[in-house]
Specification:
This protein has one domain. Helix content is about 75%, strand content about 0%. It contains 10 helices and no strands. Helix 2 runs antiparallel to helix 3 and helix 5 runs antiparallel to helix 6. The longest helix is centred in the first third of the chain and has 34 residues. About 0% of the residues have low confidence.
């Protein structure tokens, strides 16, 4: 009897979480911040094309060009961009004054946060596909040699893989800053610095340990140095630690703005400012 009740409760929770995620997909349609993500993907591809023009005599095959796109996106734009999108989606619940209504129904802040993080993870895959399409378009227009269907498939896999691993690396920051109104902008600034430091960490032999760049080894990224094997165990370990930190942050997460309002309330008075009699 207990097992069947537990199973039934589990199915209800799964359906409820699926409903939350589905609702987030509907909400994305009216978020203009999504277009910022598309614009940044185009920007990083054009930046890589400009850098290819500046490098005289270098070979610009599909793999070389896409490697430059992946690197520039990882250390310059993507961590801050995905943090901005996630933070904006969560903060809109407060600015639209819908969060307090959502929390009155059987949906906790933690479940809402998990639903939004899952939805943003799916958005990360979509942005990876957009990045891939822009890369192929600019590559073909530029007349660079070496295009193959197999190579294009590998590039798509690498872009999805590195963007998901980078999203995992910034997820604790997103979950932490989501608990207060407007705090996500501080998270955007931090993750921009967080990603930029990856450039220096990778250059000093810390690519497999540093969370932002740990995914490079897992996708088989080739930086042109000839030594790109890396240590997969260290990379997986680094990302698992970040995943563990994310779970802890989510498990202790709550809408701390409500707590802030309670602190501002005069001691010994209720919400309407009336004195509370002690028994």
């Amino acid at each position: 009897m207990r097992l069947s009740a537990f199973t039934a409760d589990g199915k209800v929770e799964v359906r409820r979480m699926a409903s939350i995620i589905k609702t987030e997909f509907y909400k994305m349609k009216r978020y203009s911040v999504i277009w910022i993500g598309v614009a940044t993907m185009l920007t990083v591809v054009l930046l890589s094309r400009f850098m290819a023009t500046a490098s005289d005599g270098a070979s610009h095959t599909l793999m070389n060009f896409s490697s430059n796109v992946i690197w520039n996106n990882l250390v310059l734009i993507y961590p801050a961009t995905i943090t901005l999108i996630a933070g904006y989606m969560i903060d809109r619940e407060r600015t639209d004054d819908t969060l307090k209504n959502i929390l009155t129904i059987p949906v906790s802040f933690r479940k809402l946060l998990v639903g939004k993080l899952v939805a943003v993870g799916c958005m990360a895959i979509v942005l990876s596909a957009v990045e891939f399409l822009f890369t192929i378009m600019i590559f073909l227009v530029s007349g660079f040699p070496g295009f193959t269907a197999a190579g294009a498939g590998k590039v798509l896999f690498q872009m999805i893989g590195i963007n998901l691993s980078a999203y995992l690396a910034v997820m604790p920051v997103i979950a932490f800053t989501a608990q207060r109104r407007g705090s996500f902008m501080a998270g955007v600034g931090f993750t921009f610095f967080y990603g930029f430091v990856g450039m220096m960490a990778s250059g000093h032999g810390l690519r497999d340990i540093y969370p932002i760049t740990a995914g490079l080894t897992l996708i088989g990224y080739d930086d042109g140095s000839g030594d790109f094997a890396g240590n997969s165990i260290l990379s997986i370990g680094s990302l698992l630690i970040i995943l563990g930190v994310t779970v802890v942050v989510i498990a202790t997460a709550k809408n701390r703005e409500r707590s802030a309002e309670n602190k501002k309330r005069p001691r010994g008075k209720n919400v309407r400012g009336r004195k509370v009699r002690r028994r």
